[in-house]
Amino acid sequence: ISPEMQLRFGYGETVVRPDIREVSASTYIDPLTDFPVGGTPGLRTTSIKNYDIRWEWYSDTGNNLSVALFYKDMIDPIESVQSPAQDGPPLVRIANADTGELYGVEIEFLQDLTFVSDDGIWDNLFVSGNLTLSDSEITLDRQKIVEQTGVSASITNLERRLTGHSEYVLNMNVGYDSDDGNHSASLVYNVFGERIIIPGIDTFDDSYEQPFHSLDLVYTYYPDFNSTVKFKLQNILDEEKELEFEGV
Predict the structure, then answer these.
(1) Is residue 136 a contact partner of residue 157, using CB atoms and an 8 Å limit?
(2) Measured between alpha carbons, how far is 247 from 239 in angstroms, rounded to an integer?
(3) Cα angle: 88, vertex 94, 97; to 5 degrees
(4) Pairwise CA distance, residues 146 & 93, whole Å
(5) What pLDDT, on a 0 to 100 scale, did the predictor assign at position 174?
(6) Residue 4 scores a pLDDT above 70
(7) Is the pLDDT of residue 186 over 80?
(8) Cα(1)–Cα(166) distance, rounded to whole angstroms?
(9) Of 17, 99, 127, 145, which is most buried by a Cβ count within 10 Å?
């Protein structure tokens, strides 16, 4: 468009392959929920067609801004489904949905803070971040999942969002880089929207992981070319992860 602006159009085809646990007949414990998760031998690879259009602006000082629209068309998305439990926690199984789509907009930027003042205090500080707003929808076939996993799966919502997908994700970073390159520091904030963690069965609704506001401080010192000393202060807001099951 100009020496500082450009427009990109992209198309690509990718795949998502299941990991070893997901195609194994064994059961493992999910570290977040402590629920048992059973793999499914014969789980199929997900095929994805990716489309995107991106506008990018770059200034001479290194500041930049980009806005992207994206769309992903999926065949055989790898998904979590719940099997009816006897006693104890529910058993989560891995299975293929029929189709899925994901679409949204992403905004990304980097801006130095030299405009705040001319006294030089702000010259080494910058703000960067990205915001993603998106939605997704998958279609599941109850009978196909029963045949694939070998267990009953009375899925409540045969059309829903992808497991683990948030409708918004925000990352913000206030950074500092010293003139001599020996010191750097970042104050990093992240938050995501609620996301399905255990799909519902037997008319019960899906269970969600609630938003988590993460604020971390990272300081890095480079005493010489071969050495790095790093100090981290994590979860400054003292947030707790919260999972919601039927309002509990």
Answers:
(1) no
(2) 19
(3) 130
(4) 10
(5) 96
(6) yes
(7) yes
(8) 33
(9) 145
| 114-118, 170-174, 197-201: which is most confident | 170-174
Please state the three-class secondary structure of the chain as a single string. Answer: CECCEEEEEEEEEEEECCCHHHHCCCEEECCCCCCEEECCCCCCCEEEEEEEEEEEEECCCCCEEEEEEEEEEEECCEEEEEECCCCCCCEEEEEECCEEEEEEEEEEEEEECCCCCCCCCCCCEEEEEEEEEEEEEEECCHHHHHHHHCCCCCECCCEECCCCCCCEEEEEEEEEECCCCCEEEEEEEEEECCEEEECCECCCCCEEECCCCEEEEEEEEEEECCEEEEEEECCCCCCCCCEECCCC
pTM of the model: 0.86
- Whether 183 contacts 193, CB under 8 Å: no
User: For residue 85, what pLDDT is reported?
Assistant: 65
The arithmetic mean of pLDDT across residues 3-31, rounded, is: 93
